[in-house]
Structures are given as structure tokens and as C-alpha cells.
Amino acid sequence: MTHAIGIDIGGTFTDVVLIDGSSTPHRRKVLTTPDDLTRACVDGVRGVLADAGLHGEMITRVVHATTQGTNALLERRRPGVAFLVTEGFRDLLAICGTGRTDLYDLLWRSWQPPIDPALTSEIPERIGAHGELVRDLDVPAVEKLAETLSATGTDAVAVCLLHAYAFPEHEAQVGKILRAAMPGAYVALSSEVWPEHQEYQRAVATVLSAYIGPVMANYLSRLESRLTEIGIGGSVHVMQSNGGAMSVQRTIERPLHSLESGPAAGVLAAATQGRRAGLERLISFDMGGTTAKASLVEGGQPALRSYFRVGGDIAGGVEGVDLRLPVLDLVEVGAGGGSIANVDEGGVVRVGPFSASADPGPACYGLGGVDPTVTDANLVLGYLSESFFLGGSMRLDREQAERALDAIAAHLGMSVAEAASVIHDIANLNMGQVIQLVTIERGVDPRDFALLAFGGAGPSHAARLAESFDISTVIVPPLPGVFSSWGLLVSDVVFEDARSVFFELEGLAPADLENVFEQLERPAKDFMSENGFDLAHVRIERTLDLRRRRQAHDLNVALDGSIVTQRTLADVGAAFADQYEQRFGVRRNDDLVIHACRIRATGIVGVGTLITDAVVAPPRAKERRAAYFTETGGFTDVDVFDRSALRVGFECPGPVVIEDVESTTVVPPTWRLEVDELSNLVLTRDK
Amino acid sequence: MSSDSAAIVTDPVRFHTISNYLSTTAREMALAISHSAYSALISGTRGMIGDCDAAILDRDGALIATDETSVVHLASLPCGLRFVLEAFDVDTVEDGDLFVNNDPHRGGLHGNDVMLFKPVFAEGELVLWVANIAHITDVGGMSPGGMAFAATTVFAEGLVIPPTKLASRGVLNEAVVDLIAANSRQPHETRGDLLALMAGVHTGEQRMRVLIDRYGVPTLRTVLADLRQYTARVARNDIVAMVDGTYRAECWIDDDGVVADEPYVVRAAVTISGDELTIDLTGSSPQAVGPINSSEAQTITAITYAVRCVVARAAPLNEGLWDSYDVVLPRGSVVYPEFPAACNTRMSSTTPSVVEAVLWALSSAKHGSVGIAGSGVPDVHAINPRDSSEYWLHFEAEWGGSGARHCNDGVASGGTPMLGSGGGMIPIETQELLYDFRCERYQLRRDSGGPGQFRGGPGIQKDYVFLRPCSVSARTDRWRFPPAGRAGGEAGRPGAFVLNPGAATEAWLTSKFADLAVSPGDVISFRTMGGGGYGPAFERPPELVLSDVIAGTVSLDAARADYGVVLTDDAGVLSIDELATQQERSSRS
Fold it and tell me: Do the beta carbons of residue B187 and residue B133 sit within 8 Å?
């Protein structure tokens, strides 16, 4: 039997979940320990082992999501790294290279690379765009430089030479010299961490790898040894931004790939649960106290995008920087249960951008908050229970909520309940933006998708949100609170790599392309074998980035897995034309250029089902409560069910409210509720 | 909350729903163009949308919503539509019609910025317009890429397309497309970019039809009126908060590139009186012979940008912003030229000067709570081969340093507030793959940022060596009148274009030159200007001067000469000589 543990470190809590494949998951939520993140991990792991009555050696797999790298980039407490670059280009990263998010902000500041100007040096060498040697590498100069750097005691060096993505010879030589002279240092070569063209992007990736590499190396090896100390025997994997898991060693070698590991887990969980429920097209929607996140799942697979922005602080006027790395396409907005409603200077009611967060929290918490929040509105509307919040561990104060809403109600000339309904709707509009961004802005029609909602506040808003996009199915999975951590445990091991090329499709010899793919796949296969995978069970996918000659945007086209032939190349041209037409409505036949070859090797891992305890008793509402719906003209009494008392196959029409320990699902009028075979709450709407 | 902020908005939920929908639609239109365009300039790089914009306008041409990813076109679509409606009676416009216009004297910016307008009908009635604009790389004229720096009339700049019906009741007039393409050096790309513009208005029309279907025309009109009043109300609140009075500022331009050594000036007078704001550019120079003239739409765009930096920044941009202030432009001037003035180089000269003068006057009205010194203007260059039937055009802008702000240093190579997004637009590795030149040097210019308590952003130096015979054009400004320092700060260092620096054939070129023939082995060094400094340089903390020297932004000599900071070099380790610095600063102040 498989026993697996997922560890998800968040800003406030570290979630640890243990799945044994046969019963409800065991779960511990412990306060994150910022001074040493491994401490909370180990405490949580000890806890779930005790709850399950298991020993460490019975655990076959640990999958980890960490914010360690992201924190290091945000806090910027480490000294800058040494930066070595082709002669003539020492200021490559200082020349403002990122676009501005707010063009009207006169006080904006560009992204500042974490390099030490005193340790920045130019390397006498130059290779041309087509591999021609323009200037020899000055080896003695590099040796002297390595000696100087070694004497400074710096622990991280980034090397980025022009055109090294395709012609890495000089970089490899520089790397060899540095690694010999500085045995303890982390040396990042651009041709190793991100072998793609565009010198600015590659230099950014190299410098950031060198910056967080030593932190990740230190942290992950400490975590591994601490887990070994408590007897954990299985493999330790780290979740990557692309939704795959990876070994600790390769995570250390390519540390940027795991920056978005936490959010990726939730999307992966949604994709997996959706697939099992027979839903291949989903919008994953995760809403908590302060943020809402959405992403797209198509064909049962989370949508990916090719870049994301890190290290910025828009509120503080500091731009971040784009990293061109595959990442689950996840969009986030600062809207949650704690978002504060207010009347802006133009006299319009808004929700956010400020949040009451956990302290003092919404007015109804009774902890001193006076501003009206979305949670207050939901309480007044009867969606939340005064007595069963967080499973009854906290009482909500309805009077405080009403008092907080008074001013807005007066401004609108409405009753408090009507004002609460307006706030609920505007909060939905804010969250609708993330859905808009992952669907319509990506050229996808949201009506073809189901909405899978989780997180503390997601299930209360999901149905209304779905209505505004004409989405007719909403899924609320079991245990929406642990759902994200469960995603860690359904992850496969994924090895991705890419090589920039410049091939004209017309007249290309199939063998030339095949050759590039074979070079890419060899290390991937070696890796899978070394990590205990039977190659027969490793799936390898090949894709190409293509564009029209002199056009600026690539499209990614999949190849079939077999050896490249003349036929393959013809298919690629046709597939490009189809995709292009689908996306832009124009069909044109032009010369195509291949810009990159990409592979993705997936080692399939057995996964645990998300199981809840079986219920046999017929469901009985635990209470009736007045809840506000515009369709019923205001308050109407509805049944409130305890979710743990609902058995598979249960069905009823809305309006009805379902209470979980950590979240509440609202089924409005015109919606129907059904509990499916996987214990999902399935809400459907008659069109 | 201000006193007059009663709930004028009829339905707050509908207000937000429609407001979001409109801004998303404008954004989608721009994305549709950007993704399907041929030219790298339109499609952009680094995940950004390029040189294109989209707008939704009402039946009469008032702005409803616009995409603001590239703000250099803000006012063009409303101005352009005004002239379409002058040329065509609105009652004769039919469903499926499509209009094109690029005429700088009829609402356009310059010939390469081509605008399309499409009416959206509901039940036989014209309800609103969707429109977009994109920079098409070549529309003919005397020099490739519209870089007609010697032009003295609009005729030399490229094909003039007056408001013209491009499609009638859904049938495209192919002859017009053929005519435009035939006048381009890149007919294939030009056709592709026109198709991209059509994809943009098509997307907009579809989206707006859905919106009209959902709410009906009367409800939609109510909410649109709400939105317009909302933005105007927020703007007036911001105007009231400024100090009453008239504030003046000016910004000088080197020359027009045709008549040597004759400078131009943009003068701005900003008057605040209660909740009224007037921006008057009377006193600006008469229109130029050369192509630095900023068309009416371009000047209104620059003023809109400057105003929006300090007024109603967070409100949706619609006609309501323009309802809240008045503009006076002198006809026949460099900021409102008359036909047939040439306009193609305004973005390096006149337009950023309008932004700078208006912003500086506005910041005085805000008592310096937002201050920005003069910024470097873009240096735009175009390179094409001379020896081949294959035609390519490398078109790029590099940026001068941004001016220092009242609270922080200027951004290195950050450009002017309206224009700069920083950095070369095309990666050097991509350029070298596609074109026959090599970049030998790309670095910040030491000591180019204007000294000040807050230092101006440095400009850059980019050196190209040519590998085949090419033709080069380039234009910039702010050499004779470098980016001004403010509040006691000093000006930035001017830029330069140098042919074969250090060689016997070394030549210093003018700030605006066209079609220079270069041969293999020739080098051109493009050097952009630094931004102006803010506040007295002697008030800059010596530690910051030290780190500038370590970073290479300021030289050891300039640390002493400009900042009065004396540094000592102990075996490669620099430190501040506190005593000498104190003496230096007190003896010279």
C-alpha cells in the first residue's frame, strides 16, 4: 500500500497531509516557522504519522511545496551574486529591461538585479549568432578572475555569454575554471539553467538561479536529512511550477523551476479530481481570505504559460521581472472574504483593494474590526452560520456585521441586506476578473467549462460567479480545505528541457530535428531510470515553438512521439496553420521557422484517491435558516445540511446551504445539488 | 468621500459589470491585433503588447473606453473618428461598413499609425463604434519605415489615407488594400498588419453586440452616462485639491532636422481655479519646416497623458476626463500644425516636450508633491540593406535616461514618462540572427545622468558594426538643450551619434540624419542622453555617490567635480574621505 505525505508551506500555515489510499486523509496545520521552515515541516510530519499510527519507514513518498525561493527573491537579504558577461555588456541587466505595469506612475522604479557591481566582470570572448568565432576566449584572464572571485569568498556566480544558448563552448570552459577554483560556490551557467535565446531573459534566469541556488541547496538538504532523522525512507520530491514533481538534486540545479510550487498543487488537484469525475474542461477556482486564484484545465491537463513575473512590488512602485519558464497558468487577484467594502471618491461602492486580513478581521469576528467585509455581507445574507463557523470553533456576531454595513446601506439608500447583496455581487465581479483573464483573454469560451471551487470562501461564491459567465456546472470537491495539499500527492515526476534552434521548416532534413530531440531526451531518460522508473512507463512528449519568418510570436505545436520524418514536418506546417487560424481567424501560408524544441518526460506515479468516510443514513437538514436571494425577493427559509451527513447520490433543488468544517457551499435558487460517486458536490443550473 | 458624491450611479453592480466588460473588450481588441500582427513593433516583445491601441466610442465619437497598454495613441481614435464623421454623414453609415484613416491633419498622428473604425449596429440603429490603431512599419514616402527625417510636407512621409470607406456592408474594398500595400516597401507585412487591425475591430464588434443584447440600448446608455460622470467627478475632486493659480513651464527642442540650429519651444500655462483646469499651449513656436510637428491628436494625447498622471489616475479613461478640463492650442504652431506640415519625428522632439512642460506646470500646482526633472527622449533608428533585392528593415528605439524624481533617482535608460518602457525592443541575439550587423557594446554611459540630490538616469551607448552595405537613419533631440535639472539639480549629458569612433574616419553625426550609407566594418555608436537631476547635487549622501562609482554610473572625477565627494582608492577598495568631502562641499557652496 502507498503511504504518501504532502507538505505545503504557506505564509501563515504549513499544511501536512498523509494519504494511505483507503481512508480519509490525516492532516495537520501548524504555524509556519520562518526562522527555519524545516521545523514546522518536521512537526507536522510527526503529527500526521502519530494520527495515522504509522512509522516513518512506511512512507513511500514525500512531496513538498515551498516558498523558500520566492521569499529569498522578495526579501533580498542575501548579498548580490558575482556576474560574468561577454565584454561590452556589463550593464546588460542594469539597462532597464522590463516594461512598466503602471504607465502613469511617475515614481516607478525598474527591477534591480541582485548582483554585486563590485563583482561584475566582462569576459574577453565573443561568439556570433551562427556560431562563428569572433573572438577567442581569453583563458588566462578567466583564470585570474576566478582567483580574484575565490578570494572574495562569494558563494554564487552567474555566467551569461552571448549566444551561449546554442554555442555553449566558451561558457562551459568558464564554468569549468570557476568550479575548479571555487569548489564551494554555486556556479550558474546560462546554457545550463535556461538554454534559450534572448540575452536579457537568460541573464535574468542565470542571476536569479545563482541568487536562490545556495538557499535552496542548503534548505532542501537540511529538510532531507531531518526527514531521514525521523525515519522517513521514501523519496523526497519537490513540486515544480509546471505541475510536475522533481528530485531534490535537480531542483537545486534548476532552482527557478520550483518558484510557483504552492499554487501549482491546487490546480493539479482540480485537474485530477475533474478527470476522475469525467470533466476534462475546468476552471479551477481557489478563494481564501485575501486572494482568489483561477486557472484553466483543458483535456484534463492544467494550462501552462511560458513566463511569469517575480520579485516585484507594484504597490511599492517596484517592477518585477519576467521569467521565461513554464508555469501553470494561474491568475490571482486580491479579493477574498476579508476584502473591505467602501465608497470611493467618485461615489461608487467598491470591494477592496484593502483587506481586513486575520487581524482584526471582519467586523463579525468581534475582534475590533469595524470595516464591512465580504464575510460580513455573507453572514448578513444568511450564507454563513453564526454558530458553525470553522466547525463551531468560532462564533460570528451578526449585529457587528450589520452595524459595519450601515454606512454603505445609507449611501445606497437600501436596506442592510440589500447592501450586503450588492457587496456580495461586486466581490463576485472582482473575482470574475481572474476567470475572465484565464478564459476570454486566452481566447477560450468559459461556457464550455465547469467551475471547480475550493478554498475557504470559494464554495460560497462559486454558483453566482458561474452564473455571470453562463457556466452551468459547479463542483465542490470533498475537504476543500486540504484540497491543495492533496494535489501534491497526485503529482507525476516531470522532466522538461528545451533547446533554442533556428531551422527553416522548408527544406529541413528530418534527421537534423531528430538529432536535437535525441540529445534532449537522453538525459531525461537517464534521469527517469536513475529514479526508479521503467522507461516503458515514461511518457515523452515533443513540441516545437514555431513562428512565421520575421513574425514576433511563437505558437507551440505538438509532434507525435515517434521519429521525425518528412511526414512529421508536413504535419507540423498544417498544425501550425490550423492553430493560427483558430486563434487569429486568418489562414496564411508563409515560411515557418522553428525557434525551439521542447521535451516533457513524465514518470507516472500511483496516486491516492480523495476519500471521505461513507455515509449510509438518509440526510436530514440540521436547521432551517433565512438566506437572501434576489430571485425570491429577499430572505427565504432554506435547509442547511452538514456536508459530512450527505451520502453519495443525494439530490435536492436550491436554495440550500451545505456546511463543511472549513467552508460553506451556497446553492442558490435555479441551481440543483447532487452528490456524485466521488463525494463531490455537483451544482447544475437549468439554462 | 466628497460632498457631491451622492449615489448618482443608478445600479452599482451593473456599473462595475459594464465598466469591467468595456475595459476588457478594449484590451481584447489590442491583444487580437498584437497577436496576429506581422511587425515586431506591433506584436511587442517580453510579454508586452506593442505599438497599437483600441477604443470604444459612442455614436457621436465620445470616448467610452480605451486600452491603455501603449498610451502614445490615447486621443487619436476619438480625433480620427471626428474627421470620419465630418467626411461621412453618420446617417448614411451602414452595418458592415469599415473606415480607415491615417491623416495627421485629420485626427491622425503620423502616416504609419493607421486607424480603423467600425460601427456597431443593433436593430438597424448605429449604437457605437469600435476602433483601433497600429503602427505599420512602412507606408511609403521618401525614406524606409516612415523615417522621412528630411520631409517638409506630409506628402514626403508616405501615403496619406484620408477618411476612406474600406468596406461597405461587409464587403472589403480590395482595391484600397492593394493601393496601400502597393505604396509600401513591405507589401506583404503591410497586408498582414491591416488584417490584424481588422481582426481587432471584428473582436470588438462581436463583444459589444453581446453587451447590447444583454442589457438593451437604453440601459447601456444610462450606464455609459454614469461612467462618464463618474470619471469627470473623480477628476474634478483631484483638480479641487490643487492650489489655485497659473503655473508656467517650457521645454526646448534642438531643431527640426531640416533648418540647422533653429530651436523650438513648447510653452505651457496651467490654470487652476476651483474645480476648473485649463491647459494653454499659446506661446509655443510656429510650426516647423521639418517633421517635428506634433499633430492636434498627438498633442492632445500628450496632454491627456500628463493630466492623467495626477488627475483621476485610477478612474476608467473615458470622455469624462476630457469633460473635466479645457485645452487651448495655437493653430499653425509646432503643437497644432496646419496642412501640409510633416509630423513623423514628433516623438523624439515635440510630443515629449509637451508632456514635460505640462507635467512640470501641473506638479507646481501640486506644490512639488510630484516632481520630475527632464527626461531623455528616444533615439529611433532604422537600418536596411543596400545591396540586396531582399528587403528587411530593422527599426528600433533606444531610450535616454529618465529624469530624477523628487524622491528618487531617474531610471537608467527609462525614457520619458509617456514613452519609455525601457531597454532595446529587440534582443541583441535575435537581431544578430536576423540581420547583418553585430552589436559590440551595450552599456550605460558613465556620468550621463544629471547630478542632483536625486541623480538623473543614465543614458546608454550601443555600438553596431556592419557586416554588409547598409543604409542607416536615426533621429533624436535634447543635445543642444539636454534634459533639464529641476529644483537645483543639473541637466543630463546630451547624446551623440558617432561614426567609426576612434578611427581616422571618425565623424560626429547630427541628431537627425537619414539614409546614411555604411560599408562592412563601419561602426556607428548610438549614445542616448542622461536624465536631469533633482535637488542640489551637494545634498546627495556621499554613500550613494560611492555606490554609483562602484557601479560605474559616476566616475571618480565626477564624484568630486559634480557632487563634491572625495573618494580614496586603497588597493582597489574605495572609501569616502569624510573630511575632504566636507571641505570640498563647504568651500564650493
Answer: no
- The span from the CA of A194 to the CA of A253, in Å, is 11
Q: How far apart are CA B270 and CA B548, in angstroms?
A: 37
CA-to-CA distance for B388 and B384, rounded, in angstroms? 10
For A656, the grid coordinates are 440550500
Dist CA B93 CA A602 (whole Å) = 58
Task: Inform me whether the C-beta atom of residue A539 falls under 8 Å from chain B C-beta atoms.
Answer: no
Q: Does A201 touch chain B (CB under 8 A)?
A: yes
Segments in A413-553 forming alpha helices (H): 416-438, 458-468, 483-489, 510-530
Rounded-to-integer distance, Cα A575 and Cα A385, Å = 53
Element (H, E) at A341: strand A339-343
Cβ contact B430–A348 (<8 Å): no
A104 neighbourhood in chain B, CB within 8 Å: 71, 305, 308-309, 313
Cis peptide leading into A195, omega within 30 of 0? Answer: no
Angle, CA A382 vertex, CA A377 and CA A387 arms, to 5°: 100
DSSP 8-state symbol, A532 = T
With CA atoms as reference, report the closest residue to A669 among A658, A654, A683: A654
Task: Determine the Cα–Cα distance for residues A359 and B521; give it in Å rounded to an integer.
Answer: 67
Is B110 within 8 Å of B295 (Cβ atoms)?
Answer: yes
E strands of B412-483, at which residues?
437-444, 460-466, 470-475
State yes or no: pLDDT of A139 exceeds 80: yes
Are A423 and A461 in contact, with CB atoms under 8 Å apart? no
CB proximity B43 to A under 8 Å? yes
**Distance from C-alpha of B450 to C-alpha of B532, rounded to nearest angstrom:** 4
- Residue A400 in this model has a pLDDT that exceeds 80: yes
User: β-pairing, A61-65 with A235-239?
Assistant: parallel
In angstroms, the Cα distances linking A451 to A437, A474, A485, A664, B542 are 14, 5, 19, 16, 58
CA separation for the pair A322, B236 (Å, rounded):
37
- The CA-atom distances, in angstroms, between A385 and each of A357, A459, A672, B8 are 20, 14, 21, 34
Q: How far apart are the first and last CA of chain A?
A: 45
Which residues is A657 bridged to in the sheet? Answer: A640, A666
Q: Which residue has the cell 522548408?
A: A506
Most confident of the following: A203-212, A542-551, B189-198, B429-438: A203-212
Task: Say if the Cβ atoms of B35 and A134 lie within 8 Å.
Answer: no
User: A557 and A578 in contact (C-beta within 8 Å)?
Assistant: no
Amino acid A121 reads S
For chain B, say whether A151 makes contact (Cβ under 8 Å): no
- The reported pTM is 0.89
Residue of A109, A348, A470 to mutate when probing chain B, most B C-beta within 10 A: A348
Q: Which of the residues in chain B have pLDDT under 70?
A: 1-9, 40-41, 43-49, 389-390, 420-425
* Average pLDDT estimate for A69-90: 91
The secondary element (H helix, E strand) that includes residue A321 is strand A321-323
CA–CA dist A39, A608 (Å, integer): 26
CB B192 within 8 A of CB B114: no
Strands B325-328 and B276-280: parallel
Which of B442, B394, B395, B398 lies closest to B416, judged by CA?
B398
Q: How far apart are CA B587 and CA B194, in angstroms?
A: 64
- What is the C-alpha to C-alpha distance for residues B12 and B227, in angstroms, rounded to an integer? 11
Rounded Cα distance, B386 and B471, in Å: 6
Q: Write down the ipTM of this complex.
A: 0.92
Question: Which residue, among A91, A167, A576, would best test binding to B if mutated, counting the most B CBs under 10 Å from its CB?
Answer: A91
Say if residues B484 and B442 touch (Cβ distance below 8 Å). Answer: no
**Is B36–A586 a contact, with Cβ atoms under 8 angstroms apart?**
yes
Write out the H or E segment, with its range, that includes residue B380. strand B379-385
